[in-house]
Amino acid sequence: MLLLLSFFGIISGITTVLFGFGGGFVTVPLLYSYLSLTMHDQGLISEFAMQISVATSAFIMIFSASLSSYQHHKKGNLNFDHIGPLFIAISIGGCFGALIAVLVDSDWIRWLFILYLVITIIDCTVRKGFMNPKAEVIQKISPQRDGVIGVVIGVVAAFLGVGGSIMTVPLMRRRGASMQESAAMANPLTLPMAITSSVVYWLYAIHDQLNFGEGFIGFLYIKGAILLIISAWIGVKIGIRMMQYLPDHVHAKAYPVLLMIVLVVMFCV
Q: What tens digit of pLDDT does each residue of 220-265 get?
C-alpha cells in the first residue's frame, strides 16, 4: 500500500507542474482512500478522515508548490503582476477555511469536495474563456476585486485541501494566460493558503487535545506526508520535462478530464 502511495505521489508532482492542482485534487482522494482502507478500524482516524486528508494535503503543498514555483520561476513562466494582490487575501482566507473544516462533519467535506469538482468541470467546459481565451472575454485586474476573490479562494482551498489552483487556473486563463502560465502561477498562490491552514490545523488539534497515534502531529499525517513529498519531488522533475511537449489546446482539454477522474474516485471510495 505504501508503494501505491509513492506512485500516486509521483502523479501528484506531475499534475502539480502541469495543472497546478496535484497537491489537492490528487492527494486528498488518495489519502482519504488510504486512511479509509487501512485505518477504518481506528475510530478517531475514521471519524476525522477527511480533515486529516485535507490538513496533510495542505502541509504537503508547502513543499511541492515551493519546488514547482522555483522550477517555473527558472523557466520564466511567472507573472507577478497577475498574482501579487491575491497573496495576503488568500492567506487570510486559508485561516478561516481550515477553522471551518475542523468544526464540521467529515462527510460534509467529502460531499462538498465532490460538489465543487462538478461545478469546476462545468465551469471549465461550458463558460467562455477557459478552453480558448479570446480578447473579448479577458478579465482586467482589479486590486479590490482580487482582495475579495483571494479570501474566497483561501477559504475554499483550505476547507477542501485543494490549494486554490482549481480557482486560480481558470482565473488566469480568463486573464489571457496560457495553460502553462496559468498552472505555473497557481503554485506560488498555493503557498500562503498551505502555510496558514497547516498552522491552524496543527494548533486546533493541540487545543482540542486530539491524538491520532503514531505518525501523526495533530491532524497532519506526517508519515504519509514525508513519503508523498519525496515522491512528489520526483514527479515535479518529470512534469517540468513533459510541459514543453504539451500544446496549449491539449493542455486545456486535459484539465477537466483529469478532474472527472478524481470525481469518479471520490464517488467510489
A: 888 888 888 888 888 878 887 877 777 767 767 777 787 788 788 7
Domain count, the chain: 1
- In terms of Cβ atoms closer than 10 Å to its own Cβ (0-12, 13-18, 19+), residue 80 is exposed
Decide: 57 and 28 in contact? Cβ < 8 Å.
Answer: yes
The boundaries of the domain holding residue 76 are: 2-268
Residues 6+ positions from 50 with CB-CB distance below 8 Å: 28, 32, 106, 107, 109, 110, 113
DSSP assignment letter at 264? H
- The span from the CA of 220 to the CA of 56, in Å, is 5
> Using an 8 Å Cβ cutoff, are 116 and 156 in contact?
yes
- Adjacent-strand bridge partners of 33: none
**Residue in 160, 161, 157 with CA at minimum distance from that of residue 149:** 157
Please name the helix (run of DSSP H) or strand (run of DSSP E) that holds residue 220, with its range, or none: strand 220-221
- pTM (predicted TM-score): 0.73
Measuring CA to CA, which residue among 55, 36, 14 is closest to residue 222?
55
